């Protein structure tokens, strides 16, 4: 059980194709939450604004705690994401020292995974399964799950 009184710094990692503009807005001036988003960024792609620009770094107390890594178009692949994790996210996270994060080594196993949206409900079971397998470090977990019907 995680005691909320001990949670002073939270790292939110948003790694889907869309920018988390709503989450960014909520914590934009808050230094107790560092928001990191890697996303597709181009004119005409949701959320249709410059909110996902690398120049959006927070304001006030939150200045420097908002990090956007925009990829132009459909150009990003696995190597790109790995490079972002290794050269940007991991160093920033170690320096920030969050109490709660999706990267379990940084927060002593205190993990919160939130699934929101649902752009393609046919793939959600596979995505959830991949997250569970990775977090449990057990590729055999999939044997206990059944794919949801289409």
UniProtKB/TrEMBL annotation:
Residues covered by the Histone deacetylase domain: 6-103
Membrane-traversing stretches: none
A matching Pfam family: Hist_deacetyl
This protein's GO CC annotations: cytoplasm; histone deacetylase complex
Gene3D superfamilies referenced in this protein's UniProt entry, alphabetically: Histone deacetylase domain
UniProt keyword Iron-sulfur, yes or no: no
Keyword terms, alphabetized: Chromatin regulator, Repressor
GO terms for biological process, alphabetical: epigenetic regulation of gene expression
Molecular functions per Gene Ontology: histone deacetylase activity, hydrolytic mechanism
PANTHER family registered for this protein in UniProt: HISTONE DEACETYLASE 18-RELATED, HISTONE DEACETYLASE HDAC1-RELATED
Protein name according to UniProt: Histone deacetylase domain-containing protein
């Amino acid at each position: 059980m995680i005691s909320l009184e001990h949670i002073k710094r939270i790292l939110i990692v948003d790694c889907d194709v869309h920018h988390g503009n709503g989450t960014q807005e909520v914590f934009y001036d808050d230094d107790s939450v560092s928001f990191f988003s890697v996303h597709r960024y181009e004119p005409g792609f949701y959320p249709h604004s410059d909110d996902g620009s690398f120049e959006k770094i927070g304001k006030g107390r939150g200045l420097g705690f908002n990090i956007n890594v925009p990829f132009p178009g459909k150009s990003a692949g696995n190597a790109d994401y790995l490079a972002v994790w290794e050269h940007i996210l991991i160093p920033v996270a170690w320096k920030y020292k969050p109490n709660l994060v999706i990267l379990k080594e940084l927060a002593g196993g205190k993990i919160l995974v939130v699934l929101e949206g649902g752009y393609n409900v046919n793939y959600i079971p596979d995505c959830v399964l991949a997250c569970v397998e990775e977090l449990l470090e057990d590729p055999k977990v999939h044997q206990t799950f059944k794919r949801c019907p289409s």
